[in-house]
Design a protein that fits this description.
This protein is α+β, with helices and mostly antiparallel strands. The protein contains nine helices and twelve strands. Helices cover 31% and strands 12% of the residues.
Length: 441
């Protein structure tokens, strides 16, 4: 059986109640094909040489992402449920295991860029076989067997969607961090996914009364275990800005000496700034008294009305301190998102809330991931998922910060108000931004 081409909008399989898995089996098969094809479409924009690059230990080559997402389905579904299963290459279990210690040893993460073999052609053969075997299993197994791995299938689809965004952030860092200062495109075709300039630099403050609010996932469909359990939190009255901080705002911060004033910075943040000699957002550079940013389509003038992006937590905190404000807490951000329509069917390359909104509304909830003030830790009554998902989230709940929302590179229908992204405070190669909050008087 071969993979069938699919067209039309992706199916929102994450909203399916568990009991509907069997009834929506064909829709899940279509979702599987769509997700697998989309990963390859993203990767096809880059040359085999590009797909080999690794610019830092935290990032991975595109080729590795393509193989790892196949390893996930092969290891957690095919190896357990497919009849007459045989590994494509047993050595791949070592090469493409990310951090699942219970499965076995892993190839050192900082050295993935040195992995010239298997080559890209071999990796694509691997993907094709895994996709074919998955479709054979999905279409031929009985309902009882399908019910045993349907939840794992949904996890695998969401896992691959996460890696689709990581492909873009990782390859962007590899191609842009030390290149393209002269504005030369890295490809004959534009692969830039930056959204068009908006008219959102003016930010008003919106009032929220606080009170008891439910934080965490409350639906009946798929969510990650770190979104559970939904629980009440008592919020004090607060205000939040209607828009994200703009590039114009950030230039004002830089011109005012924001990167040179230690009184604005957390101690760890100031040490990071000094050690790395940072004076502007990632990918920015100054020429002819103007600011430019490197993109995959070449160097561009910084669009002043666009939200600022590629900031880490330290930078976001310093800016908030300069504005005599703070970052929103996770529970506050979630209450704000629930107060407005959260369109789960946003399209890649477009901001999530692209419907016309009144000026006194919240904008750009899903255009960039937004730093919060909240540490990434377990919710009350949190339980690590059993089985294959046991090492997915819980073991990372230390020394990281929660980000909320989505970005223009996030897969369609992947995020939601309760979604918890998380990164270390020094990380800024993701599509990250910020909005401000403050306590009500």
């Amino acid at each position: 059986m071969t993979e069938k081409a699919t067209t039309g909008e992706p199916f929102n399989c994450n909203e399916l109640p568990t009991q509907d898995y069997l009834e929506q089996r064909q829709a899940l098969i279509q979702a599987f094909c769509t997700v697998r094809q989309h990963s390859e479409q993203i990767a096809s924009r880059f040359s085999p040489e590009d797909q080999q690059l690794q610019s830092m230990p935290e990032a991975s080559p595109v080729k590795w992402h393509l193989a790892h997402t196949s390893w996930f389905f092969e290891t957690f579904i095919l190896a357990e449920f497919a009849p007459r299963f045989k590994w494509f290459d047993e050595h791949f279990c070592y090469l493409f295991n990310s951090y699942y210690n219970a499965i076995g040893r892993q190839y050192p993460r900082p050295q993935r860029g040195l992995m010239s073999r298997p080559g890209l052609e071999r990796v694509m053969q691997y993907r094709k076989q895994v996709t074919t075997l998955m479709l054979d299993l999905l279409q031929d197994c009985d309902d009882d067997l399908f019910g045993k791995f349907a939840a794992g299938l949904l996890l695998g689809l969401n896992h691959e969607q996460q890696h689709q965004e990581l492909i873009m952030t990782d390859i962007s860092h590899a191609l842009l961090y030390r290149n393209c200062e002269q504005g030369q495109p890295v490809s004959e075709q534009s692969v830039c996914i930056n959204s068009s300039e908006s008219k959102s630099s003016t930010k008003g403050w919106l009032d929220f009364t606080g009170g008891e609010a439910i934080t965490g996932y409350q639906g009946q469909g798929f969510c990650f275990d770190n979104e559970l359990a939904a629980h009440p939190e008592l919020l004090q009255p607060f205000q939040i800005t209607s828009h994200l901080v703009s590039n114009a705002d950030w230039i004002e911060f830089m011109d005012a000496g924001g990167y040179d004033d230690p009184m604005l910075w957390l101690a760890d943040g100031w040490a990071w700034k000094c050690e790395n000699n940072v004076h502007s957002p990632l990918y920015w550079f100054r020429a002819n008294r103007s600011w430019y940013r490197r993109t995959l389509a070449g160097a561009q003038s910084v669009p002043t009305n666009d939200p600022v992006s590629h900031l880490n937590y330290y930078e976001a905190e310093a800016f908030a301190s300069w504005k005599k404000a703070r970052l929103p807490r996770e529970a506050e951000w979630e209450q704000v998102a629930r107060s407005y329509v959260w369109e789960t069917n946003h399209k890649p390359g477009r901001k999530l809330d692209d419907k016309k909104r009144p000026a006194n509304s919240v904008h750009d909830l899903g255009r960039y991931w937004q730093w919060t003030q909240s540490a990434y830790s377990a919710y009350p009554r949190f339980q690590v998922s059993p089985g294959m998902a046991a090492e997915y989230n819980g073991k990372f709940m230390v020394n990281q910060i929660v980000l909320k929302g989505a970005s223009h590179a996030t897969a369609a229908m992947h995020s939601r108000a309760s979604y918890r992204n998380f990164f270390y405070p020094h990380a800024r190669w993701q599509f990250t931004s910020l909005r401000l909050a403050r306590d009500s008087n």
